[in-house]
Amino acid sequence: MVDASTTSLVDSPTPHCGPGEALIKVGLLSIDPTIRTWMNDAPGYLPPIDIGDVIRSGGSGVVVESRSEHYRVGDVVNGMTGWQEWAVASDANRFAVLPQGLGLDLAAVMNVLGATGLTAYFGLLDVGAFKAGDVVVVSGAAGATGSVVGQIARARGAGKVVGIAGGPEKCAEVVELYGFDACLDYREPGLSRRIHEACPKGIDVYFDNVGGAVLDAALANIAMHARIVMCGAISQYNATDREGVANTSMLIMRRGQMKGFIVFDFAQRYAEAHVELAAMALDGRIVHQEHLVPGLENAPAALNLLFTGGNHGKTLVVVDESVRLD
Question: What is the residue extent of each domain of the chain?
Fold first, then answer.
C-alpha cells in the first residue's frame, strides 16, 4: 500500500506556458488502480514513474493561458495532468477538449466518458465480443469500470449479469443500484460453487478486474467458447507473492479465449463510445456515482481506497472545485 514514505507534497513555481503550449488549472484527478502498477519498477505498457517525478495520472482542468492553436482560454480539457495543481498541454502531452452542454457534470463525464467507461465499453463489446443472450460475470462489479460493464451488458440484452464484489454492502449496491441480476461476495467461502449455482450453464463472457483466486473460480465455470476479458488484477498489485491460476486448462476443454487489453488500444474510436455512453447516462440506462476526495494532498489516501474497498463508484480527487463543465 502507498504510505507516507511513498510520496511527498512539493511546492514549486507555476509552470511557464511556452510557444505551442497551454497552461491548465487542474480541477479533478482520476484515481485508477493502474497508477499503482506505474509505481513498480517493472515492464508495462507505460514506463515506471521515476523516483522524484510527479505521479502520473489522468485528470481534467481548464485552460487559463494558451499559445497553441489547439486550445482556447476557458476550454475544459481532459488528459494526463499528473498529481499537481497545474499542467501544461504540448505536442508531447495532448489534451482532449470536452464538449459543453452534455447535461453531465465534470465528475460524471470523467467517470462514464472517461477511461473507466471507455474501458468497460470496448472491453465488453470488442475484446469480449459480447452478443445478446450471453451470460456475463464481472469481478470488481461495484467499481467504476465493473459497474458500467454490467449495465452495458443488460442494455444490450444479456441473458444474465452476475457481479462479484467484496462484502454485503457492495453486493447489495451492485444489484439494487446498478441492476445486476445477482452479486456474489468473494470474501465468503466456496466462490466457484456459488458461481456455478448462479450460472448453471456456464459463463459466456467473464470481465476480470481482480485476478488471482477470483479469476481461477470464474475459469472453473466457463461455457463453451467463453471469452475472458483481462482488464485488471487489482488483487495482485500490492502483493509481494502473486497468486497463480490453476484452472487454465478449462480454456482448452471449453475452447475459450483469454485476452488482455489497454483502453489506449481503441483511442481512434473514443468518439463512437462517447456518443452511446452519454446517451445511456442521460436516459438512465447507466447509473453512476462518484466518490469525491477533497484536496490534492489526499491523492495517496484516495488511491488506497481502491484497495481497501472504501470507495463507492469512481474515485476522483478535487483539486479545484471551481473547474466545471457548463
Answer: 1-98+289-326, 115-264
Q: Which pTM does this prediction carry?
A: 0.89
The Cα 110–Cα 164 span in angstroms is 24
Report the 10 Å Cβ neighbour count for 70: 17
Between 3.90.180.10, 1.10.10.2910, 3.40.50.1970, 3.30.565.10, what CATH number should domain 1-98+289-326 receive? 3.90.180.10
Q: How high is the mean pLDDT in each 10-residue block of the chain (326 residues)?
A: 93 95 97 90 88 95 96 95 97 90 91 93 98 98 95 98 96 97 97 98 96 95 98 73 83 96 92 93 94 96 90 93 90
Question: According to the 3-state scheme, what is the secondary structure of the chain?
Answer: CCCCCCCCCCCCCCCCCCCCCEEEEEEEEECCCHHHHHCCCCCCCCCCCCCCCCCCCEEEEEEEEECCCCCCCCCEEEEECCCCCEEEECCCCCCEECCCCCCCCHHHHHHHCCHHHHHHHHHHHHHCCCCCCCEEEEECCCEHHHHHHHHHHHHCCCCEEEEEECCHHHHHHHHHCCCCCEEEECCCCCHHHHHHHHCCCCEEEEEECCCHHHHHHHHCCEEEEEEEEECCCCCCCCCCCCCCCCCCHHHHHCCCEEEECCHHHHHHHHHHHHHHHHHHHHCCCCCCCEEEEECHHHHHHHHHHHHHCCCCEEEEEECCCCCCCC
Per-residue model confidence (pLDDT) at position 237: 63
26, 118, 116: which is closest to 76 by C-alpha?
A: 26
The radius of gyration of the chain from alpha carbons, rounded to an integer in Å, stands at 20
| Contact status, residue 234 vs residue 35, Cβ threshold 8 Å | no
According to CATH, what is the number of the domain 115-264?
3.40.50.720
pLDDT (0 to 100) of residue 117? 94
The position carrying cell 489497454 is 262
Give the cell for residue 166. 467484496
Within 13 Å of residue 95, how many CA atoms lie on the same side as its CB?
35
